[in-house]
Amino acid sequence: MDKSKVLILDFGSQYTQLIARRVREFGVYSEIVPFNHEIDKIRDFNAGAIILSGGPSSVYEKDAPQIDKKILELGIPVLGICYGLQLLAIHSGMKVKGAKEREYGHAKLNILKKTLLLEGLKDNTSVWMSHGDKISDYPDDFLITGSTKNTEIAVIESDKRKIYGVQFHPEVVHTKDGKRLISNFLFKISKLKSNWTMKSFIETSVKSIRTKVGKEKVILGLSGGVDSTVLALLLKKAIGDQLIPVFVDNGVLRKNEFTSLMKKFKDDLGLKVIGVDASEDFLNKLKNVKDPEKKRKIIGRTFIEVFAREAKQFGKIKYFSQGTLYPDVIESVSVKGPAATIKSHHNVGGLPEKMDWELIEPFRELFKDEVRAIGRELKLDDKFVNRHPFPGPGLAIRILGAVSKKKVRILQDADAILKEELDNFNLYNEIWQSFVVLLPIKTVGVMGDVRTYEYVATIRLVTSVDGMTADWYYPPEDFLRTVSTRMVNEVKGINRITYDMTSKPPGTIEWE
Ligand code: XMP
To answer: In the annotation, is 171 catalytic?
Structure first.
């Protein structure tokens, strides 16, 4: 049996992705599937361990998500977290009932027995609880190895059945020794191999890309972001000149980005990139379009039209490649609901459903920090690797409402100032993403003795691990003062600056 992979069944917890990340951080490949993934597929995946995530339901609720009991007969160690534990409990003959006092947030874990699972965890270590149900009776072959003040049965273990469960969330940072517990489960209990490295990923994907592509050509849309650039380097390594990287100026890039990146791609990275100035085409099609989704669709479609136009000079092209990441494709309960199909978010902002090219998306299983690590392996410089994410639809979704040349110029100028000052104040690498949003409203101001009536801009700075959730960043006052003074003084068309103090959720990172 392959002992180097973990399958995570998702019961709808907001933390499911974190479980996958934690496992991968230990060099073990993990994948998330919905809780009702078919048993044959689960068997075929050949996991060395299975983890059941938490979830918002209560096990006895009508329609509460269940597991196929056959999973517990596969002989694979299973760890249940929170709701996952409760499912394991009822399937093992225990009782689960609503607790008198619900336990949320920090709790102290009382370690009752030092087992392999709890090895190295300190007694009274802080754990993160988020549940209201409790387990009561338990069969003889189970050990209760941990408890908290309000939860008598907080850790259950049965070596005989290879079933383990914790009522708290070891995957969140608030559980101090959580990583230790996960590593104990992976290596001490499940005896998994740690062989998931970015180096090994590069080797395997270079081989599989070569086999798949053969002598065909691959067109790649470069966006100027980290993902597509790293992808270009990977594809170049795999198929050399069969790769046709295309970088399109869609008229909504950052200031001077097209020129400076063309130079970087060609001179520093040795890519034979085709540069296409299609800005007029894009801006014309975007004229007077206010609806954010329509803007995305127009941009996605126009990208493909431009690629198709350019591709003609290279004869027949079979493949189109893009840097879609795992968070965009996870078929996860927490993202979409049990019956939903895979969420398809595309880097270029909504590809048409029917395309003449077959897709190659080598990063479909990767998180952003893994792509960054591949970039480093492929000798992409740190400054580029650490670039903030930039969306495919570019500044078009940061100019609220209709896009015009004038507004693009205003936003580019403001955005350039923000970037300069983040560098000057040495803040760029503390932040996940930084940008300016141009609002479609004007306010009155006074400059010199003259009344002004200009646009309002908002600064958005967020910290995040993977863009799925984010916190707004609390910047130093002198940084904010400098940026706001410079923007109002130097950018013609803006006379008021505001700061966005919204986390995700409930907000999203982008405004549109
Ligand atoms: P939201 O706004 O959904 O964004 O919180 C999460 C992350 O995704 C980026 N984003 C996009 N990236 N095409 C992209 O390539 C898109 O259409 C798109 N929309 C949002 C966003 O910048 C953030 O990093």
So the answer is: yes
